[in-house]
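User: Can you help me understand a structure? I only have the sequence.
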Amino acid sequence: MTADTLVRTTRGPTTVGRVSSLPGIDEVRSLPAYFEMTVPEDYIDVNGHMNITRYFDLGAWAPWKRVEELGVDESYLTERRMSFFTVEHHIRYLGELRLGDPLSVRPAFVGRAGKALHGISFIVDESRDVIACTMEILYVHVSLDERRAVPVPDDVAAALDADIATTAWAADAATGLTLRR
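Assistant: Let's start by predicting it. Here is the structure, written out as tokens:
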């Protein structure tokens, strides 16, 4: 049994169907790479592999780097006074990363609604050519002054929609969370 053959039921995991379809490593490598590195000693836990908090940090920050490139940068926060807040996440550990293993983190956005965004990070074990972890994130777009959800402005929405259109295949792997429209 592999991690991608599990589905969730009210009674816990079962092997009745598939949670998602993982993309091929070549598809994932077509995404921009962030945090290309080898696993350092301070990332290793008592079990001799990369600690879950490090997967979380890497998986959470890579989409933020990507959204900065799409227009949600420091000036967006300071001048337009808007940002995205994380409201939910889902992590799947599919392989083990150990000391010295090379990795990269490759994010994609897979869906958008008026006030929300759905993304996924693929943490790639570069030495074994496999996806070691996926992390899905749901974001809500907020006014930093009013501290409430507000619509994504048209220019940012257009940039996000164009980006989502180029990576439509990634949505098949992002089934742990649901974007409410």
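Now, to help you interpret it: The mean pLDDT is 90. The first helix runs from residue 25 to 29. Let me know which part you'd like to focus on.
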